[in-house]
Amino acid sequence: MNKAIEVALFLHLLAVAVWIGGMVFAHFCLRPALADLSPQLRLPLWESVFARFFNWVAASVLVILLTGGFLLTQFGGGHAAWQLHAMAGLGVLMMLIFGHIRFAVFPRIRRAVQAQNWPDGARAVGTVRRLVVINLVLGVVTIGFAVLSRGF
Ligand code: HEM
C-alpha cells in the first residue's frame, strides 16, 4: 500500500470513529442520563450539545468524502468492488440524513428553545433521535460492507 492510501485510510477511519462514536455516546449514554431532567433544563442542554457535536460531524463528513473519493479512485473507480460502491451510496445517504438533521431539524430546536416552546422543542429532539438511530444502523451496515470489500 502506498503512503497516500495509508494516510487517506487513517483519516477516513478517524472521521468514521468520531461520527459513529459520537452517535453511540449521544444515543446510549447522554440521552438516558438526561431523560429525567425537566424540558427547561434538558432542551437548552441538547441544543448546546448538538451545536458542538454537529460541527464535529460536519468536519467528519468532509474528511470522509475527500478521503473516500480518493480511496475509491485508488481501488478501481467505477470498476471498484460492489461493496465499495455500496459503502459510498450508504455513506452519501447518511450525509443527506445528517444534512436534514443539521439544517432542517436543529433550527427548529433553536427556535423552540429561544421561544421557550418546550413541546415543539421536545418533538424536534425526538425527530433527531429517530434520524440518529437510522444513521447508526446505516453506519454499522456500511462498516460491514467495508469489511466485506476485503473479499474474505
Ligand atoms: C462517500 C462515502 C464513502 C466512500 C466513497 C468510501 C470509500 C472507501 C474506500 C475506497 C475504502 C478503501 C477500501 C479498502 O481499504 O479496501 C474505504 C474504507 C473504509 N470505509 Fe469508506 N467510504 C465512504 C464512507 C464510509 C462511511 C460512511 C463509513 C462508515 C460508516 C465507512 C467505513 C469504512 C471503513 C471501516 C473502511 C476500512 C475498510 C478496510 O480497510 O477493510 N466509509 N472507504
TrEMBL record:
The protein's name in its UniProt record: CopD family protein
Gene Ontology cellular-component annotations: membrane
Transmembrane stretches, start-end: 50-72, 84-107, 127-148
Keywords noted in UniProt: Membrane, Transmembrane, Transmembrane helix
Protein origin, superkingdom: Bacteria
Record-linked InterPro entries: Cu-R_CopD_dom
Domain Copper resistance protein D: start-end pairs: 49-148
